[in-house]
Amino acid sequence: MRKTIKKIQSFKNQGKKITALTAYDYSTAKYIDEGGVDMILVGDSAAQVVLGLNDTTEISIEEMIIFTKAVSRATNNALLVADMPFGSFQVNKEETMKNALLFIKNGANAIKLEGCSDLTIENIKHLTQNSIPVLGHLGFTPMSINCLSGHKIQGKDFDKTLEILSQAKKLEQAGCFAIVLELMAEQSASYITKNLTVPTIGIGAGAGCDGQILVSDDLFGKYDRFKPKFSRQYINLKEQMLEAVKNYCNDVEQGLFPNKNESFELDYNEAKKLENYR
Ligand code: KIV
């Protein structure tokens, strides 16, 4: 049975760490779900790891909907959250609602919004009051890359930590069921986590958060254009895929693939007719 928002929130009080990963396609999502994560995010990191774009500002809502549909078809257990891409929640709350509904209608259980602007707070209130659960996202917010000038650690001192805590409290009051904290000093993220009632899910924010999320391509060792210091690679799929492709090319070139078991045969008599035909 699919995990609910309430279940995810209950883990904070139980002291059970929340596990989350991103997914974008059917088969990977299926194994991530079967592997037992609590939450799957159809992240806008698909911009880089699936589409080869430069950053998340470039991905469209149509592309995100295709990934959301595929992941939804593949999963039964994890709570499914979809990232609302840049441009889909920056105009006004009516348009945000229309776009959020597209994700829910296509299989997401909740959506994620980055940041804490006045409009974002208004959006969160409007969505949550109308039965659309929202996951917040603070600290480094990748879709603000053009304003943040690069991947910089956030909440680096006392004042900045309190600033992010005050943003987090605003998100909590607006109705977010949980908040992602990205690229932040461990002490800052821990302090913020202890001072919120909703769970925090860290990425590059140390071990003190209520849960962790990683981009699955980083965990699988599949994306090699950028390797964040905070991610951990559990398998080198790039190496294994390269090896498989080389072996395949070699087998085809040597006439070793396909073999008899991998081919289809005519009936004996039909084959004979063909052999004797000129
Ligand atoms: O898009 C994404 O993958 C994310 C995670 C980094 C949390 O937002």
Descriptive report:
- This protein folds into 2 domains: 5-235, Phosphoenolpyruvate-binding domains (TIM Barrel, Alpha-Beta Barrel), CATH 3.20.20; 240-276, no CATH class.
- It has an 8-stranded parallel barrel with strand order 1-2-3-4-5-6-7-8, surrounded by 7 helices.
- It starts with a helix and ends with a helix.
- With 278 residues, it is α/β, with parallel strands linked by helices.
- It has helices at residues 5-14, 26-35, 46-49, 61-74, 93-105, 118-129, 145-148, 158-174, 186-194, 216-219, 237-253, 268-276, and strands at residues 18-22, 39-42, 79-83, 110-112, 134-139, 178-182, 200-203, 211-214.
- It is elongated.
- It has 12 helices and 8 strands.
- The chain binds 3-methyl-2-oxobutanoic acid.
